[in-house]
Amino acid sequence: MRVTAKTRVCALIGYPIEHSLSPTIHNAAFQHLGLDYIYVAFDVQPNRLQDAIAGVRGLGVHGLNVTMPHKISIIRYLDELDGAVRNIGSVNTVLNSGGILIGYTTDGVGALEALRHAGSDPKGRKIIVLGAGGASRSISFTLAEHARELIILNRTLEKALALAKDISEAFGSGVNVRADRLSEESLEAEIKDADVLINATSIGMRPKENETPVRRRLLHGKLTVFDIVYDPIETRLLREAKAAGAKTVDGLSMLVYQGAASFEIWTGAKAPVEVMRRAAIREVKGKKYRHTGGM
Ligand code: ATR
Fold it and tell me: Whose CA is closest to 260, among 133, 157, 134, 117?
């Protein structure tokens, strides 16, 4: 990679960011397309976020990815917000457009594209989402507009109900969304005629890779099972889903498609997703990660 005086800088800000795959994914893509961009990562503690954004403005950093714990708190420092951000309430991508900082979220789109590219377009489907945290919020808001029926199941019922209510209020009668407590009974009742099951919890992530949110006997061959956990790449849930004849989508796929959407916002170029995925796999296999659907 040749860095020149004209090289545009994109950066990840988060805390901690040392395990992030994003620099590998994006630099591989810039290099593949011969774009004069570079991607770096900055550890930004919560009390330095405002300074960091002033730095972005002062230095003319071209684009940002934003991860925990800044996805919500960054909003107040930005100039404009994409429509989806107003619903979802978090930002993972910033474009510096001639000094105007515009916030976007590509988490939900990453999940949608990962499903579509696996041949499981969520349009008209019954979808179950496990979890009601930040990752579930982005995914559920995005998929609710496409699904025939969206069911949010969460250990803490109140959080599932609140998320379902937010989605219903945002989209009105155009969406069909329900919530229940995550339990063997609720799963058994809902999974029989479901088309897509998404694990948006951290269950099954290393070092607890022996755990799974869904008992094996409930999985069936008509399902597409999508796990946002990407360490390990093949979680116990995905392994058992495959054995039950289900189609599977891994968390690395979501990471790559969400990165691809950010890449396209910064560069206007079509992202080379296969190059990005191969770079991510090489990096994951060589190291240990402790992240779920983060960057
Ligand atoms: P993220 O931003 O990755 O979504 P989060 O906002 O902390 O992280 O949300 C984590 C989600 O995983 C929540 O839905 C959480 O359930 P609760 O709302 O009940 O806490 C879920 N989760 C994490 N560990 C879990 C476990 N062992 N069993 C069931 N759900 C779990």
Answer: 117
The best mutation among 130, 183, 202 to test binding of ligand 1, ranked by most ligand atoms within 8 Å of the C-beta, falls on 202
CATH number attached to the domain at 8-105+253-286? 3.40.50.10860
> Cα–chain-centroid distance for residue 172?
24
- Nearest 10 degrees: Cα torsion 32, 33, 35, 39: -40
* pTM value surpassing 0.85: yes
Ligand 1 pocket at CB < 6 A: 131-136, 154-156, 159, 201-203, 292-293
The residues assigned a catalytic role are 71
CATH 3.40.50.10860 intervals, the chain: 8-105+253-286
Index of the ligand 1 atom closest to the CA of residue 293: 3
For residue 184, the Cα-to-chain-centroid distance in whole angstroms is 26
**pLDDT tens digit sequence for 182-213:** 999 999 999 999 999 999 999 999 999 999 99
Q: In ligand 1, which atom is closest to the CA atom of 228?
A: 3
Name the nearest CA neighbour of 37 among 18, 61, 59, 55: 61
pLDDT tens, 148-176?
A: 999 999 999 999 999 999 999 999 988 99
Q: What's residue 64's pLDDT? A: 98
Q: How far is the CA of 141 from the centre of ligand 1 (A)?
A: 17
Distance 131 CA to ligand 1 centre (A): 6
pLDDT tens digits for 51-105?
999 999 999 999 999 999 999 999 999 999 999 999 999 999 999 999 999 999 9
Pocket test residue of 88, 155, 183, 214 for ligand 1, highest count of atoms within 8 A of CB:
155
pLDDT recorded at residue 293: 53
Closest CA to 260 of 72, 48, 32: 32
CATH of 108-249, one of 2.30.40.10, 3.40.50.80, 3.40.50.720, 3.40.228.10: 3.40.50.720
